[in-house]
Structure to design on (298 residues):
């Protein structure tokens, strides 16, 4: 009797331990995805490196954050450059140079986004698909659902603002395109038809360097950590110093500026020919290289 009871107790303890182990593992798995993942962006300019750390707001912009984290895990951004240095933001994530000794305006190369995110049969290989050609989700597009106001996406208690250093989506698609696609609304899972132009982001992103106001046509999905604001300012100061000392030979009245305008031909299989537009890039005269982007916390 004692032996039987002892065996039952041992079996109960064993089952209880196994159940607790499963529970702990389940909680650990759930916990591996936080509301605010963190990434680091390591940038080099003029033989110096600058590392910026960000919090990404998955709880506000789940599709956007999932999309960029997936590209980061693919090392997609490593070695790309800031190709469009605008007055209040710098845009990167889609172009690179083959070497350091190049003509910045003539030798800029577009990264093949489709080759990285589709198989040999043209099927999208990304796990986080958010845009489709049809309401039945049989023909996925290789672009991102625009989680911002102009695309009728809303955030309770407002979303993130375009503050100094914040990171956001970017695209060059003409706003007057009439093409429609389908997206899955996060709030209820229903499919809804939306303009393609607002759901055309692939890999480009912008880092805000000045005041642009609160745009309703882009998704600001991450904020620069406060401790790294000075690091970004150091990069901007280095660019200003390069312009003065190298481009203008120390002459404060010099006429050279840091960028050169270049008209770029962007191909997009979903654009209608009637609304196609060439895009003007403000290309930096010295390379600003995105050496690597890494996930610090999922």
């Amino acid at each position: 009797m004692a032996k039987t009871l002892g065996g039952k107790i041992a079996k109960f303890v064993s089952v209880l331990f196994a159940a607790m182990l499963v529970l702990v593992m389940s909680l650990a798995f759930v916990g591996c995805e936080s509301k605010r993942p963190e990434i680091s962006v390591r940038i080099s300019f003029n033989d110096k490196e600058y590392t910026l750390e960000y919090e990404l707001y998955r709880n506000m912009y789940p599709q956007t954050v999932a999309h960029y984290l997936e590209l980061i895990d693919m090392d997609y951004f490593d070695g790309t450059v800031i190709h469009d240095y605008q007055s209040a933001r710098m845009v990167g994530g889609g172009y690179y140079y083959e070497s350091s000794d190049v003509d910045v305006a003539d030798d800029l190369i577009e990264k093949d986004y489709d080759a990285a995110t589709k198989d040999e049969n043209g099927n999208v290989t990304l796990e986080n698909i958010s845009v489709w050609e049809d309401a039945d989700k049989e023909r996925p597009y290789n672009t991102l659902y625009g989680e911002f106001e102009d695309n009728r996406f809303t955030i309770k208690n407002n979303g993130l603002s375009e503050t100094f250093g914040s990171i956001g989506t970017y695209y060059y698609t003409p706003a007057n395109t009439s093409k429609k696609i389908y997206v899955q609304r996060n709030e209820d899972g229903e499919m809804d038809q939306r303009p393609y132009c607002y759901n055309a982001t692939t890999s480009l992103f912008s880092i805000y360097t000045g005041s642009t106001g609160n745009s309703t046509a882009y998704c600001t999905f991450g904020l620069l950590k406060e401790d790294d604001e000075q690091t970004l300012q150091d990069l901007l100061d280095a660019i200003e110093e390069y312009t003065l000392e190298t481009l203008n030979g120390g002459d404060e009245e010099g006429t050279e500026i840091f960028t050169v305008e270049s008209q770029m031909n962007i191909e997009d299989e979903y654009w209608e020919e009637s609304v196609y537009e060439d895009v003007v890039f403000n290309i930096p005269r010295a390379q600003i290289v995105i050496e690597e982007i890494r996930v610090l916390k999922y």
